[in-house]
User: Fold these one by one.
Assistant:
Number 1:
Amino acid sequence: MLAPSFILLFALTLYPLIFAVRNAFFYWNLQTSPTPQMFVGLDNFKNAFTFTPFMASLRNTLLIAFIGIIIEITIGMFIALALSAKMPYLTFVRALLIMPTTIAPIIVGFMFRYMYWDVTGLIPWIAKTLHIPEPGAGYLGSTGTALPAILLADIWQWTPFFAIVLYAAIVSVDSEMIEAARVDGAGGIRVVWSIILPTIKPVMVVIVLLQFMKLFNIFDLVYVLTRGGPGDSTMTLSYSLFQQGLVNFNIGVAAAMTIMIVAILNILVFIYTKFVMKGAKLS
């Protein structure tokens, strides 16, 4: 029974990784040859830093991941607490919240692309109504606003996911413990800080980790909204990898970048889990 599972695991995970490791040390451009051409050692790794915007991509990816998670979990927590306070039309609100997460990210990208449209877009119209100056090249064409524009689209789609998951965790907290704290004189903030947050911490750890890995590989929104521009201001690791592998057909450099991205992601996840485990031991 385990054999099909191992075959599927190998086909979907191990083989692509082995393929990338092997080709990371070979010069291979699909425009000139259907097979690897010659062994080049570490040159592909050097070229990834020299001839691609790797560091800019890493910086933008980390900015999107960290800022996105902080905003999404903060707003999501406030929404979850509001939902747990027995607000009216709760069933309708929960159904409304789940809708953005059911939309494909590329569709969300097109939605926001039209919303940022200079002439008829909703966001420029709101900015003009509030007398907020619009960037000369538009929100997606200016280096100072293009990355926040991508972040806003992701926050719109995934904050409700945090809210729904955190709400489910909050309603599972022992109500007797909360009532006992209130009888002892604890206010709402104290109850949240001392009882609710420590209780739902394992859920928060998991959803933060999942969302970090998703944002670290963000591609759809970048592809639809900015194509990594203007300049390299919104270039991410996944989009840079796409350009090398499927636009320039430079398979060797793309494979080297894949290895580096996997290594960086695993290091960050390891640091995060160690930090969480250390915090759990201290508590």
Note: The first strand starts at residue 26 and ends at 27.
Number 2:
Amino acid sequence: MVKEIKVSSKSADSVKADLCITGMFDGKSMSKDQKSLDSVCSGALSSAVELSGFDAKFGKSVQVFGNSSLKRVSVYGAGDKAEFKTDNARDLAAMIVKDAQKHEAKSITVDAGSFGLNRDAFCQAFCEGLILGAYSFNEYKSDKKEKKVTPITVTVTGNASAAMVNKALAIGDSVSLARDVSNHPANIATPTFLANHAKRIGKAKNFKVKILDYKDCKKLGMGAFCGVAQGAKEPAKAIIMEYMGGEKGDKPFALVGKGLTFDSGGISLKPGAKMDEMKFDMCGSSTVLGVMNAIAELQPKMNVVAVIGSTENMPGSNAQRPGDIVTAYNGKTIEILNTDAEGRLLLADMLSYTVDKYKPVGMIDFATLTGAVLIALGHKSSGVMGNNDDLMKEVKKSSDNTGERVWELPMWEEYSEDIKSKIADIKNLGAPMQAGTIAGGVFLQEFVGDTPWVHMDIAGMAWGPTKPSYQPKNGATGYGVRIVYDLLENRIK
């Protein structure tokens, strides 16, 4: 783990560290600062670069021993400078910190100028990469050696922005929180567990947190959510977080998360293979908690409300049945054709409740909603849909800014025909074996009214991707936290 990131105006060769990192772009010769580092190494660095045929290709590195102040010095290839984007900086930083962990380095110095970190966006991205690349989840390892994590202190030298470093720390920590919450097993990460996390975040300035139980939700008319929850022994929760850091009276932006802490499929039981991964069906709620944690730390001048519906989907004696009809918060009736299409039922009530209570200026929901999105896009992008071009453009812009990919899918009117029910208003499935992700999107559209809204199906991105290097090899990714905070921050600007 990265314990601390400091900024120093000193040159890299004058800061004591276990490992000093400098970068080189393709075709570039050693800078003045790098020549100073070479002197510290008695010329070993330039010799190693020359003798190894180091070509500065992205991710390639050469390491030499230094002196008592700088124990090791490494030069990393950053590739073609013209093609070096912020996500490359994030990726390379993760590679660097993973190498540092292998050498059990407790302190790292980074020559900021050599990587172009004098530019704010690159500084932030690089520091995020350090934090995310160092992430590990060893909570349940009994072997002390496996569980041991060496804290690393990083010093970024030169003309780097302390404000960007602090922002990167907050966002990196918030992504890590989202990963942690998702990685816990379902017998630990219950709806109550999520509610307690929300309460802890809500202790920050400008926050209020309210938790509704099953009876509260039933009384409010959340028949779709309660229908999913009725088969589970674990108490369901609706988690409501209000952050009012903006002008009093300004309408908030809304975030809505699916918090299925375990999804067995209910009566429409899932196959046994990989059912253990259904603890990740609450990753939408983890994204929301991660964003709200970043907001708690950074205190942006805006109003944001977050609503999470959390329950298990279990085949208990009182479980919802295929063929049942439920009434959602907004009065629409829903025919249940498959109890494993439960996430859209939960979100239906959370979305319509949010619209009714808060009249948000914009709204994004996050859900591991369909396996179909994984078939369509793999572990490369989330699928996004919405009813507002301007908000969709904001999402795409923030996707480009953060490297968290999105791909827009259509919601043509014809798709809405596929969810019409013969005996209720709508049904919770679309056409058999067709456009499953889009069917989920057009279903949710029934519950947002005219509110500008984007749905993010993150089922392919919430766990599984192992590239770039800042993604963990196993477990949850924390996808969505960075893209959404960037979007919210851009709205202030």
Note: The chain has two domains: 2-160, 172-492.
